[in-house]
Each structure stands twice: as C-alpha cells, then as structure tokens.
Amino acid sequence: MNRLRAKKQTGMVASLICVIAACIALNLLGKSINDMIGLPMYIDNIGTLLSALIGGYVPCITVGFLTNIIGGFTNEYTAYYCVISVFIAVAAVNFTNRKMLTRFPYVIVAVITFAFLGGVAGGLVTLLINGFSFGEGAAVDFAKKISSAVSLGYIPSNFISCFLIDLADKALVTAIAVLIYKPLPHRLTDYLKAQSWYYLTVFEKRSEQGRRRMSLRVKVTLLVAVSTTMVAATAIGVSIVQYRDSAIERYEEQGQCAARLIADKIDRAKLAGYMERGRNAPGYAEAEGMLESIRDSSPEIKFIYIYQVTDKGCRVVFDLDTEDVEADEAGELIEYDDTIEKYAELFLKGEAVPTDITDDIDGRLVSVYEPIRDASGEAVCYVGVDMSMDKLRSEAYAFLSRIISLFIGFLIVIRTYAVWLADRKIIAPINKMAYAAERVAFDTPQARAESIEMLEKLDIDTGDEIEHLYHAYKGATADTARYIDEVQKKSGQIAKLQNGLVLVLADMVESRDKCTGDHVRKTAAYSGIILRQMQKEGIYADQLSEEFISEVVNSAPLHDVGKITVSDAILNKPGKLTDEEFNAMKSHTTEGGKIIDKAITLVSEESGFLTEARNMAACHHEKWNGKGYPNGVSGEDIPLSARVMAVADVFDALVSRRSYKEPFTVEKAFDIIRNDAGTHFDPLVVQAFLDAEDEVRRTAAMNMDI
User: Fold this and answer.
1) Which domain holds residue 515?
2) What residues pair up with 372 in beta bridges, in sequence order?
C-alpha cells in the first residue's frame, strides 16, 4: 500500500513538472520567435493559456510567474511584469472552468480581458516602474500617432496604444493555445485533469446555509498570506530606506567633491578683490567660468555659491544657479538662509559645517559646505553646493513599484501552492491543534500550565510531518512558557536596575549642589508617604492606582534634573540670589522637562514613568493659586504628581540645612505647609501629608541634616 501510494505520488509530481516545463518552454519559444521577426507584440503567453486548459491553477500560475522570472535574467524589466502574467493565468483558469476559452462566442470576452490585464494593467506597471514614464518602444511610437490623430494626452494615448497592441497579441496567443489543445489525445487531457492539482478552489465556497465556512485550508492560506505580506512589507520598507539613504549619500559625496574641488582651485588671494569690485575684479570672470563648468558637470548640482559669513549677514563672492532667476551680486550683503542660520555659530568660528537637507520652494536640496582657508588656516569664505534631490521621489516610487510588482506575483504563487497543500495534506490533527491553539494562554502561571497540559492531551500520532509539527509546537509552547517565566523574573530585576540608575543620575545632578544633601531620596520618601495616605483616604482615587504610585515614587528623584543646566556659582551661592540669578535658577524646571522629553522621544511605547518624571521636573514649583513658575498654572491643571512633589520638596527644604539658612524645626515646617494649603499647595494633598504626620516625622528624623 505504501509503495503504491509512493508511486502514485511520484507520478503526480512528475506530470506536474512536465506540464510546467513544457509550457514555460512554449512561452519562451513564442517570445523568441516574436523577437526574431520583430513584431510589436510579445507572444509569451501561449504556454500560460495552454496550461490553464490542461492543468488548472497550480501549473498555470507557476508557468506565468516563472516565465517572467526566467526572462528577467536577460532583461530585468521582464521580471517586474510577473504580476501581470499571474493575473492573466488566474483569469485564464476561470474562463477554462466556465468552458469559455474554447467556445467562440465567449473567447472574445476572454481575449478582451487578457488584453485589459496585459495592456492597461501592464501599462500601469510600466508607468510606475519607469518613474511615471512609458519609456520607449513600439507602443510609445504608436501612442504618438494616436495622440497626434485625436489630440489625446500622453498618458491616455499610451494606455490606448498598450491595450490595442495587447489585444492583437492576446488574440494571437489564445488562438495558438486553443489550436495546440484541440488535437491533444483525450486520454492525456483526462489524465492531467484527474490529478489532484487540477481541481483547486481558489475562491472560498459558501455553505448551504449561505454562511462562509472558515475551513482549515482558508486559515492556513491566510496565515501564509499574512506572514508573507508582513515579511515582504518589512523587506520593502528596509529596501526603500536603504535606497533613500544611499541616494542621499551619493548626493552628499558629489556635493563634497564639487565643493572641495572649488575650494582647491579658487585663488584665495583674489577673494577680497572679488568682494570689493565684483565682476570688474581681475580674474573674476575666469573664476566664475570655472564654477559654471563644475556646476554643469552634474545635472544634480542646482546652486553653487561662495559666501563670507559675518555676524551681520553673508557677503556674496559668487552666486550661481541652474534656473533663470536673478543671482546675488558680488560684494552684496544678504541675510542668512535657513541652513546658514542653523549653523551660524560654526560658520562664524570657521569650523566644519555638517551636510544639511532642506525641502522648500527651491525643492529638496542637500547642502554641502567647504571652508576656503588662508595660509594661516583661518576660514575666509565658504563654498556652498546645493544638490537637487527632486528626482529622488520619482525614483523611489519606481523602485517601490518594481518590488511590489514582484511581491504580488510571488504572493499569488505561494498562495496557490498553500491552498493546494492545505487541501491535500492538512487534516483532523491540525484542526485539533488549531482548536487548542485558540485556547492557549500565557497571562498567568496557571494558564501556562493548563495550556501545556491541554496540548499533551491531544496526543497526535500520525507518523508524519504533522506529528513532527505537533511536537515542535508543543515544545515551542513549553519553551515560551518558560521564557515568559524568566522574562517576568528579569523584569523585576530590570525595574530595580532602572530605579538604581535614576538615583545615580539624580545623585550626579545633586552632587553639584553642595547644600541639598540627600534631597532626592528624601523627597521620594515623602512623596510615597503622601501618595499612600491619599490612597488610604480615597483622595483622587481615580488616579491613584498602584502603577501610578510606583511611577511617581520611582521617578521622583529626577524632579531636579534640570539643575544640571544651572551654573555651580548660582547653585552654591551662600547669599541671596539676584533677580537674574533667580531667573536662571527657575529655568531648571523647564530645562528638566526638556531633558526628560528627549528621553520620552527615544521610547517607542508610552512610558508613565517618564511622563510623571517630566510632570514633576517641569511643574513642582507651580502653585495652587497660579502664582508659581514656570507657567503659572493653577489648581488641578497642575499634574497630581507635581502637586505632591511640591509639598515634599518644600518640606524637605525647610527641615534641611542650606548655605543660606539653618534648618527649621519639624513643627515649624508643618505649620508652614499647613498655612500654605489652598495657596501654595493642593489642600487635599496637604490634608494627606498632615494626616501622615507620624510617618513623616519618622522619615525626617532618619534623614534630618542638623
């Protein structure tokens, strides 16, 4: 029985390969004959249509796809039309199944459909992969005649030309394919149609009740399609980014070469004269001619200019461009443009200026600058070269179109084979696995244990690849469960590490302030006491989740991170600060918010930890009555974490020694906090603080610096 099954399997595979190979050869032969004769057609779908008549979806789609891929070895553009050949193959099999490809009244509809796919859809592919151009060839020449005859535009005339040429081509190849099919022995055609790969349902049937059946075949097909699409989309995205980056690097390198060449060739001794006398200066015309020749050497060079950058503006030495616009005259003082203004400090210091990319009324430009230095090495002027990247967008679209065209054709081929294999190979054990997979859960240790036990009870024993898949899936599930256990353990370690790093960072900031001592730890402790008391009393209960409290307490040490931007002289001044110094000290709130905002931009997902750190850093000096700083917000517009930190921060400052004061007693500090409730502080936060007086006193006693 096994030998008989193996022999039948071998015969089926051999016949499939023979049909595919013969029909591909027929396609390539037709194309070769067409090229030899020089006809304005293609004649490369004879084998595709014949395979539809004798083989069905699997060989037909394979023939259409591989014909273009093989043709791509001699002409890469041929490969990009594989999606069109695959669509024609699908249409041909549908017409064959409805017996419309061999009956004259209906074959006309088939030919028109093939011509639409090959001409109109193929013309669209041509337009996209050529960067919105139809290129050259017989179809374009015919389109020019159509346009001159009926006054159509470039695109409509080309689409009509492609359709008419393809109509003649598909009529010819359909006739040839039918003429080859008709004389074939019925024994041969019946044998091929009896193969398992002939009868293949690409589109899902409906059940008798009219409801779509979600068969396992469809699920597997969907899985293949989705996974392939995700991989392809990722690859396409990476390819586009790499293509764009490499193109920008190429523009940058060209610009740098041109700028360095100009800097080497320009006569430095004459630059002052050029600026004073302009075009009347000796050698100016020759130098300008040299610049023009360099500009004209590359179509991507849009502007070349030499400026002397001063603190009052740019002194023009040379100004060339590729457009018919009025250029700035030599010696003229002009305002900074956006790029020069961005790097004005570097220009004025005579340092190297990085490449800049702009997108404005002049188009998308890559701007490269090279200093011209005198004998002492000081930068006298800067050479600027602006490279136009206007073509990059259309080139990127063309590149993207080519990749997508290949991907769609490949996806249809993969889907066809996935459907075929699902129909033949995937049986009840996979249904059981799918049933179990829908119920596998990893959210709790108990759920993970139950999922593994459930898979064990399936006990699939088929003795083939399905059994191997079952064991692999079961093992992967167990490994995943163990991995999740490890991840959860390590997550706790990472959280501890994070909190430790926060404290280290906060200590580094605070170490510059000689009078704050262990301020960051104490304020974090007081904040935790207040938050727990508020939670206990039901104050702001809708906000005080365990996660929120943890985030506030752990990020509290960062509330003064902005002090890193304040000078040591101001931080450690023993006396009263001047108004200017106090304003500089107040800036630590906004600067702290900016620092943490930068950290937030580096995190791909929302981080409550950093959000609360930013709220406290930016707003812990705001007051309940709106008279605080930096923004003067009031009431509940101040983030809750900042309102809590305001109490903790002021209390610690009161009971701690500073270079400008002695520490207040705890009683005095409590009185000040109590009296400022409703003006400086949120009265509900103060209420919780006062209610936790005993715990606050214990914490203060352990940390007081007196």
Assistant:
1) 511-703
2) 381
